[in-house]
From TrEMBL:
This is DNA polymerase IV. Binds 2 magnesium ions per subunit. Monomer. It comes from Lentzea guizhouensis. One of its GO terms (cellular component) is cytosol. It is an enzyme of class 2 (transferase). Mg(2+) binds at D12, D102. Residues 234-254 are annotated as: Disordered. PANTHER family: DNA POLYMERASE KAPPA, DNA REPAIR POLYMERASE UMUC / TRANSFERASE FAMILY MEMBER. Belongs to the DNA polymerase type-Y family. Its cofactor is Mg(2+). PROSITE patterns: UMUC. It catalyses: DNA(n) + a 2'-deoxyribonucleoside 5'-triphosphate = DNA(n+1) + diphosphate. The gene is dinB.
């Protein structure tokens, strides 16, 4: 039986939100486009050429690219485009693992006899997405999920790159360390300070040396990736690992009471989604985008892990309020442009271990009643008194970590 040496595709739509806007409005094609005002949610490659990046403050983006056209987000259009693209994925192979609204892994190792080699399948997929959905997409092809994702990153935008099985390390080792999963700004700075700038230089180090430099988990992780050790298969039907929501707040100062009202509204929404999906969460994550001098920005994340997983709104809100309270001095000093909440450590709600003593009232009874009211009469049928008359910002899609 033939076994493909490069059976995994990583397909990633190019500047997805901005590409949808350019597809739907011919006047935007070939021009720099920014989706979102106060915070950049997406930028076309024409805007990226001027240094505009996702999550950048809107004013800084306008200074870098004053000729950019700023458009408001249209989540319904992006959702429809994503569904159409994933339909192309699933008619290419049943083995599809979605990573986000605009990217997925596809296992095509068993399709050689009926569909040709992986590079042929990838080229056909790109052509179909362009013809049927009208969007450019980049595909990386390799034996492992990690290397396929690296290949698509190198091939962007609107490209196709196949890494042959006998040339994996020759392709990987000259790349900068930032191409490795888990190497962010902080880790990259540590490695550069030690004179390490390429993946090959990491591979030349033993695991013990990397552990001494970066810690046990990070050291072993990077050592494995630098040698392209990634045994993970494509997982079909994989359930999402977090649920979140966030609000762009603009540049107007916000009082602690304002932020608390916004936080409560966010928790109400995400906890309802949690219960609708029959899930529970153990970790509450607070996400902030703070202003710095010269209209720059910085992203801050704080998290708290509960003793027991829950879908109870008040328990989750209490944990989120603790995180927000701890961040208030920083917010007061710098200002805030975005506030978000994610719930992680998700599990099935019916597997929660009940904790004694039990409350007299059935746990979650109020949440269930409110969910029924909102399901019947709309999400705004019942709201918190603290939210009445307040500007609670604009809901925006979650920004990448």
């Amino acid at each position: 039986m033939f076994v493909s040496s490069t059976p995994i595709l990583h397909a990633d739509l190019d500047a997805f939100y901005a590409s949808v806007e350019q597809r739907d409005d011919p006047r935007l094609r070939g021009r720099p486009v920014i989706v979102g005002g106060g915070v950049v949610l997406a930028a076309s490659y024409e805007a990226k050429a001027f240094g505009v990046r996702t999550a950048m403050g809107g004013r800084r983006a306008a200074r870098l690219c004053p000729q950019a056209i700023v458009v408001p987000p249209r989540m319904s259009a992006y959702s429809a485009a994503s569904k159409a693209v994933f339909e192309v994925f699933r008619t290419t192979t049943p083995l599809v693992e979605g990573l986000s609204i605009d990217e997925a892994f596809l296992d095509v190792g068993g399709l050689h006899r009926i569909a040709g080699p992986p590079e042929t399948i990838a080229a056909r997929l790109r052509a179909r997405v362009l013809a049927e959905v009208g969007l450019p997409i980049t595909v990386g092809v390799a034996r492992t999920k990690f290397l396929a994702k690296v290949a698509s990153g190198v091939a962007k935008p609107d490209g196709l790159l196949v890494v042959p099985a006998d040339g994996e390390l020759e392709f990987l080792h000259p790349l900068p360390v930032e191409r490795l999963w888990g190497v962010g700004t902080v880790t990259a700075a540590k490695l550069h300070a030690l004179g390490i700038s390429t993946v090959g230089e990491i591979a030349a180090l033993g695991p013990d040396a990397l552990v001494a430099m970066l810690g046990k988990a990070a050291g072993r992780h990077l050592h494995a990736l630098a040698h392209n050790h990634d045994p993970r298969p494509v997982q079909v039907g994989r359930r999402r690992r977090s649920i979140g929501s966030q609000r762009a707040l603009g540049r107007r100062p916000r009082t602690p009471d304002d932020l608390d009202a916004i936080l409560a509204s966010l928790i109400d929404g995400v906890s309802r989604r949690l219960r609708t999906a029959d899930r529970s969460a153990r970790t509450v994550v607070l996400r902030l985008v703070l202003r710095l001098r010269f209209a720059d920005y910085t992203r801050v994340t704080r998290s708290h892990t509960l003793v027991h997983p829950t879908a109870d709104t008040e328990v989750l809100l209490k944990a989120a309020r603790v995180l927000l309270s701890a961040a208030l001095p920083m917010i007061t000093e710098r200002g805030i442009t975005l506030l978000g909440v994610s719930l992680a450590g998700l599990g099935k709600e019916d597997t929660i271990q009940l904790v004694l003593p039990f409350d007299e009232c059935e746990p979650g009874a109020l949440d269930t009643a409110l969910d029924h009211v909102r399901d019947r009469f709309g999400g705004k049928a019942v709201t918190r008194a603290a939210s009445i008359g307040r500007d609670t910002g604009v809901s925006v899609p979650l920004l990448p970590d």
